[in-house]
User: What shape does this take?
Amino acid sequence: MFIYNFKMNASNMFRVAIILIIISALIILSISIYNFYYKTKFVINDNLPTNSIANIPSNQYTSILKDVYENVDDYVGQSINFTGYVYKLYDLKDSEFILARDMLINSDSQSVVVGFLCSYDKAKDFKEGTWVNVTGKIIKGYYHNEIPVIDITKMEETRRPEETYVYPPSDTYIPTSVIL
Assistant: This one.
């Protein structure tokens, strides 16, 4: 039979307490890192070849719109496809309109119009408020400042989607390439 005799003084108890605090902090840090990297759902857009047409889903529209506006040079030449409605401003040319969606800004269903400026020779043939599906390339344009413009190659009237609203840009949207 073995008998163990432990002597604990204040100095040893302080060292043990510090070691336990450090171990606890490392465990909490490890759990936090694990949750951040492995449980957070990020939207990653690396799955499109550069020569294809990016179909923009409604749930990512404002995140993509924000990134394209902030990094227009990276997206010039990218072909996109999206559905929105024709929104005309008084100072736009006859060949220009906004491919618009209404973005909800609070829980009281208040919204603002957001969208890409589009250029299309037959734009005047579409009345304001008409829902359209457009395909075109992103180019640089000018409207009170340098902005991205969709140079439309195909535009057709379509039915109004079930979900007409879009939501503010997501904090989890991380563009990982220059492809939408």
About this structure: The first strand starts at residue 53 and ends at 55. Helices lie at 10-39, 61-70, 72-75. Residues 41-49, 176-180 have pLDDT under 50 and may be disordered. DSSP finds three helices and seven strands in the chain.
